[in-house]
Amino acid sequence: MDHGSWPKEEGQSLTELALILPVMLLLLAIALDAGRAMMTHMEVVHAAREGAWVAARPVTSEVMARRATLDALREAGLDPARASVSVVIRSPGQPVEVRVSYTYRPLMSFLPLRSITLRARQTAVRW
Q: Which of 87, 93, 90, 96 is nearest to 123 (CA)?
């Protein structure tokens, strides 16, 4: 092939790559952040479930259930300081309830969403 016959197309591939690469990297970063947010939400739900399980025991207190919830968040690698936990314990045979709110901060901090509040609510019947 004679390189002199196509002088305008020599840098076309590189120009196309330079234009599309930032867009592709941004889409990849958004997809990774969305996956991380979903995983974090699953851990918040798990922590609420752990707290409800502890709250349903016959000899327990709201403090013990809250501590179990925060410990589950810590074990999942999440920062308990970003969590808000509320526990309602009733008499035996009645449902107990644990609510968890967790402030999730995306890695893509330059986007308009600075933080997202992830919520979970779990109930169990007290023994």
A: 96
Whether residue 103 lies inside any domain: the answer is yes
Cβ(102)–Cβ(118) under 8 Å?
yes
pTM of full prediction above 0.70: yes
Domain range for 118 is 11-125
CA 64 to chain CA mean position, Å:
24
- Cα separations (Å) of 81 from 28, 50, 64, 65, 90? 29, 18, 17, 16, 27
Query: Which residue type is seen at 96?
Result: V
Q: Locate 99 and state its tokens.
A: 């609510």
Q: Has residue 1 been placed in a domain?
A: no
**What are the average pLDDT values for consecutive 10-residue runs of the chain, which has 127 residues?**
60 89 92 95 99 96 98 98 98 97 88 88 96
What's the full length of the chain, in residues? 127
